[in-house]
């Protein structure tokens, strides 16, 4: 990706899709506590129904971790990659990172009186997010993300995200965004880690946005996050070394970018990969093309009552080609309605 491209290009497709879906608007359980309690009870996946999907997961893990098994995978080679939006936490009614950007515009507005008469900010501040982007398209997205994600040090941005994630509430459920995580997937991450898998997030979301909270919520540390990122520049600010965030794109970790990001950040082809949309297709293809035993799973959003039901026609989490390939090649598809006993740690939406 050319370095002179706006940082907004990192997520512009997702953001435009998110705002197109605006008509849909109408007690965090720590991973360690959940996983340890389940393990103590002898069931590592208590929120999974006893379906073929659960059996496939357990059978694969047992095969690759049993010494003497023809499918045994050494611990050093056990790598599991997870998409984030729609795979580990919810992504409806729009991607949470973009809701963060909208909130930041409102907070920054008093310092930018010119925004009252400047689009897309003027419409955004009036609550008309559709109109804010309708006229400007990609240019509007660029202005939004550049105003909220760049022009500060990396440490400053991390703290801003931590403050937001600790207080902001989901527009439908009224829950903290970190409560909108999927209980069955928390258990799966813990189950794999208990079997010596190194777990990584490989997401189209911003790498620093995720690094601010993923260790606390998923137990996945900052060095195990692969995501889209803005360009940063080393500077001395009042004599202090800092990294400044620039309004330029460095890398887009979505679609075909995911295998590239995996290679650059991890250096191993995953043993198992988990996603939920066409944006994860290439990651799953890359994983299944590796030598030896491999596992690919798609989370299929089929539960309109407890969460949201969407796939081929959805602007957000569009699942079409990946679902066809999963069915054709025998990859595992987790049907949320039928395979999961519970959705969120707190219950349903």
Keywords:
8-stranded mixed beta sheet; alpha/beta; 38% helix; single chain; 16% strand; 15 helices; globular; Rossmann fold; 349 residues
Give an overview in words.
By secondary structure, this protein is an alpha/beta fold. The protein has helices spanning 12-20, 31-40, 52-65, 96-108, 121-125, 129-134, 138-149, 154-165, 183-194, 207-211, 214-218, 257-265, 281-288, 321-329, 336-339, and strands at 79-82, 198-206, 225-237, 240-251, 272-275, 295-302, 309-310, 332-335. Helix 2 (31-40) crosses helix 9 (183-194) and helix 4 (96-108) packs across helix 7. The radius of gyration is 20 Å and the shape is globular.
Query: Order of SSEs, N→C?
Result: HHHEHHHHHHEHHEEHEHEEHEH
Shape: globular
Q: What share of residues is helical? A: 25-40%
Q: Could you give a short account of the major beta sheet?
A: 8 strands, mixed
- Return the CATH topology of the domain at 24-94 and 172-339: Rossmann fold
How widely separated are the two ends?
A: 38 Å
* Annotated CATH homologous superfamily of the domain at 24-94 and 172-339: HAD superfamily/HAD-like
Proportion of residues in β-strands: 15-25%
> Number of helical runs?
15
The assigned structural class equals alpha/beta
- Average pLDDT value? 90
Just give the CATH class of the domain at 24-94 and 172-339: Alpha Beta
Number of strands: 8
Radius of gyration: 20 Å
CATH architecture of the domain at 24-94 and 172-339: 3-Layer(aba) Sandwich
Identify low-pLDDT runs: 8-12, 16-32
């Amino acid at each position: 990706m050319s370095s002179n491209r706006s940082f907004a290009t990192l997520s512009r497709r997702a953001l435009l899709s998110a705002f197109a879906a605006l008509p849909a608007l109408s007690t965090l359980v720590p991973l360690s506590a959940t996983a340890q309690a389940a393990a103590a009870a002898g069931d590592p996946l208590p929120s999974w129904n006893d379906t073929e999907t659960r059996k496939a997961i357990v059978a694969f893990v047992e095969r690759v971790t049993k010494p003497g098994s023809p499918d045994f995978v050494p611990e050093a080679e056990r790598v599991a990659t997870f998409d984030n939006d729609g795979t580990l936490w919810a992504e409806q009614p729009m991607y949470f990172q973009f809701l963060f950007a909208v909130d930041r515009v409102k907070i920054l507005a008093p310092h930018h009186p010119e925004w009252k008469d400047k689009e897309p900010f003027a419409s955004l501040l009036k609550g008309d997010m559709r109109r804010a982007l309708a006229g400007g398209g990609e240019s509007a997205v660029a202005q939004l993300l550049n105003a909220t994600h760049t022009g500060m040090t990396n440490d400053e941005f991390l703290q801003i995200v931590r403050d937001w994630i600790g207080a902001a509430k989901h527009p439908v459920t009224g829950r903290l965004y970190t409560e909108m995580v999927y209980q069955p997937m928390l258990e799966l991450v813990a189950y794999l880690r208990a079997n010596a898998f190194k777990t990584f997030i490989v997401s189209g979301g911003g790498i620093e946005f995720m690094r601010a909270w993923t260790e606390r919520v998923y137990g996945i540390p900052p060095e195990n996050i692969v995501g889209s990122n803005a360009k940063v520049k080393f500077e001395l600010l009042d004599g202090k070394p800092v990294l400044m965030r620039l309004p330029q794109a460095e890398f887009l970790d979505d679609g075909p970018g995911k295998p590239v990001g995996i290679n650059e950040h991890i250096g191993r082809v995953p043993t198992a990969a988990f996603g939920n949309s066409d944006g994860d297709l290439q990651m799953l293809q890359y994983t299944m093309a590796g030598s030896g035993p491999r596992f690919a799973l798609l989370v299929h959003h089929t539960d309109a009552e407890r969460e949201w039901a969407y796939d081929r026609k959805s602007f957000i989490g569009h699942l079409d080609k990946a679902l066809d390939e999963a069915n054709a090649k025998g990859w595992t598809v987790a049907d949320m309605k039928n395979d999961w006993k519970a959705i969120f740690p707190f219950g349903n939406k």
